[in-house]
Amino acid sequence: MGAPIIDVDENLRLLGTAHVATASVEAVKQNIEEWKPDIVAVELCKSRFEALTQDRRLDKEGLLKVIKEGKAPMVLLQSLLAAEQRKLGIDEGQQPGAELLAAVEAAQEYDLDVKLVDRDIQTTLRRAWKNMRFKEKVGLMWALLAEEDTDEELELEDMLADKDLLTSLMEELREVSPGAGEVLIDERDEFIARKISEIRGEGKVLAVLGAGHLNGVSKLLSDDVKPSEERISELALVPKGGKILKTISYAIPIAVFALLGWFAYNGDLASIKENGIYWFAGNFIGAALFCMLAGGHPIAILVAALASPITSLNPALAAGWFAGYAQMKVKEPTGEDLTEFLKLDSAKLFWTNRAGRILLVTALTNLGSMAGAWISMGLIAAGL
Questions:
Q1: Residue 213 to residue 191: CA distance in whole angstroms
Q2: Cα(278)–Cα(375) distance, rounded to whole angstroms?
């Protein structure tokens, strides 16, 4: 049974694929040879295309940059998506996106025009992370922590042929995280559909998409969605930091220093000591506990605990940076670890791979430090 095909009209065909399936690679080549399109549109952005076609390597400096730039959560989210593919039993040994690369190579072989119609992966991940509520982010971390192997695997051909099953799988992601689901499914469906609409009328177009996007994109195109540079720009906008969280990040240290100053002014040393204990204990326990959940080395856990009460008073710093750096120093990743991690084919890499563990320690420590600071402020406020 072949990959699903939807002919929107006589000059526009959508081919649904699984991103890790051998059958999908073959289906792409067959459709290009038999349907003979003029243009091949692929669900890739420039950065993902370059990642598939170039020999990308990760070194220790690159890993440190990921930590410093706060990109660890983006990598965690990307890993969870890869892990979901594996849990569904659709990993057949193909590199994720192999069928998209096959589409590009086949198009180039026949001297066809290739169009990249997906939104930049970093923009998508940042928008997804920004759109997730705090409890969804915590749920993401727990999903990584609780990943389990399952003996129940779906047959790939059945999955590709059953649109209801595909829909249910996409909705499963929406259940895990409604915020991420909106960005990863709905927004991308619209972005891809509008990019395809820009090239309609230029000849026969074969659009190679992940099967999970087939229904959404085909519906939009059937409803004759129009090209819109304004809407494309809006969907491609990298979100800025949330004003509320940014305000809180500055309000907490201001409030702490203001209280300490007030108590000192009134000579209330007992209150300084009591609230100081609340502040240090909450931050200490929150950061250390989450670093421990990430499987951090005892030295990294100690660094997380000691750094959190200080970094929580400085919005420009993060306890996870220090914990991640400590983890990297005591459990230095090898060249093999760094190369293997780029495959990102399972969330288990965050446990079995040293590079992955460093990023998990970084992200979870930051989360624990944030939670600890909020709890500490709650205890302090309750005692006033």
A1: 11
A2: 9
CB 212 within 8 A of CB 88: no
C-alpha closest to that of 239 among 316, 80, 128: 128
In whole angstroms, give the CA distance from residue 234 to residue 41: 21
Instruction: Estimate to the nearest angstrom the gap between the alpha carbon of 117 and the chain centroid.
Output: 19
Amino acid, single-letter form, for residue 222: S
Q: Where are the alpha helices (DSSP H) in the chain?
A: 22-35, 46-53, 60-68, 72-87, 98-109, 121-131, 134-145, 156-161, 163-176, 178-181, 188-199, 214-222, 229-235, 243-265, 269-293, 298-311, 319-330, 335-341, 349-352, 354-383
182-202 exposure pattern, b = at least 16 Cβ within 10 A, e = fewer: bbbbebbbbbbbbbbbbbbee
Residue 106 CA from chain centroid, whole number: 29
Q: What is the largest CA-CA distance in the chain?
A: 86
Q: Where are the domains of the chain?
A: 5-56+91-235, 243-383
Helix, coil or strand: residue 315: coil
Quickly tell me which residue has 């060249």 as its tokens: 335
pLDDT of residue 156: 43
Residues in the chain where the model's pLDDT stays below 70 = 1-3, 18-24, 54-62, 65-66, 68-98, 140-173, 241-246, 248, 335, 338-349, 383-384
CA distance linking residue 7 with residue 363, whole number of Å: 44
pLDDT of residue 14: 93
Specify whether the CB–CB gap between 48 and 118 falls below 8 A.
yes
- pLDDT at residue 131, rounded to an integer: 84
pLDDT for position 284? 95
What's residue 115's pLDDT? 93
How far is 141 from 290, CA to CA, in rounded Å? 10
